[in-house]
Amino acid sequence: MYLDKLEERMLRGDYGSAIARAMEVIVKVGDVLRADRLIDIDTVHVAGVSYLTIGDPGLEYLEDLASAGARFRVLTTVNPVGIDVLDKWGINNYFIDKQWRIIEALRKMGASLWLTCAPYEYLRIRPRTYHAWAESNAVAYINAVYDAWTEKLPGPFVVLSALVGKVPRYGLYTLDGRIPTRIVRLNQDKAITDPLIAGLIGRKIAEAVGNEKPYLMAKIQGNAVLKQLLASYATYSPHAFMIIDSLTPNYREYAKMMDKHEIIDIDLSEVMKGHEGKGQDFDAVFLGCPHYGFDEVTSVINYVSSKGWKRASKPVYIAVTLFTLKQLDPNVVMKLRDSNIYLVTSTCPVVSPFLKSLNVSKVATESVKQMYYLPKMVGVNYISCNGIECLDLVFND
Known about the structure:
Elements: H1 5-12, H2 17-32, E1 38-40, E2 43-46, H3 51-67, E3 75-78, H4 93-108, E4 131-133, H5 136-145, H6 155-164, E5 166-168, E6 182-187, H7 195-209, E7 214-217, H8 223-236, E8 243-244, H9 251-257, E9 263-267, H10 268-271, E10 284-292, H11 294-306, E11 316-320, H12 322-327, H13 330-338, E12 341-345, H14 354-357, E13 362-365, H15 368-378, E14 381-384, H16 392-395
Parallel strand pairs: 2-3, 2-4, 6-7, 6-9, 7-8, 10-11, 10-13, 11-12, 13-14
Antiparallel strand pairs: 1-5
């Protein structure tokens, strides 16, 4: 693999041992992947930062890098951690202390501690720029919505990429590697407006195409719905890449580059089978995977207001970013709490013990991504519900 003079100096150790070690790994990975060279990246998004998932080995890895003077060379954002940085939610102090050490190590290296799985909502991302992102839903989103180029990368690898500002050029970092190989068509009478249905469609697409790269022909209405479709697809897809007709920048170019393949048709009536959650018992409603933005929280506020700010019969937990929380009137946040609705920042139930700490064993959720991870990661079961109608389960009973 070709290295320019700067890259050779990095590898040689001219910029310190931490950079040299990072370059050594990146070059070896590039050689294995048969990359022809390294490319400069605009941003990095680090995942795998919860103490629940990386434990002491991950903590020691990050602290060793930070103590060695390692510093990120490009804008580096960070995924949700295992705690709400503003509230304990019953989590024990041992876990909280370990998580803060992880956060501090990332801060020392220069990370922007946004602690969200949806950094794409706060960045201006230009088409055909290079990035190194590890959060699968975010990878799917910027590939499909911005035609920004990133592979679905492991968390430790993107930390090293952030230190040198480069990744090997292979796969989705090349135009040839981004050519769709299957056309997927959704049979529909009207645009998809329901987040749950969108998530189920995303899973169905991943199951239908496997390792292939889909060109999706579908009508999807609203960013919240699009987020759920892509998050679910990325959960079940090995690469988290798709092109969406009439949405992805340069979609016409991609369509022209495709070989003509048989069309895979997806029937909506088949997608919804087995996801009728009404009438089943649950302990709480969970919304916000990916993290809810301002518009999605506003929809909840409008719903509760329409109910006269009555109190939900069971608690509702909504994962949001710190940015979203700062946009909201504190008095409205307090009114939500009085209505048994709680905004949880900087974390996600699948990487945190907070639901178990609150004695929640089963949630009602719209997120198909959560349906996959909750039982596996934290032993929490689920029933499905449809978008804002999830709140009907605790306001109309």
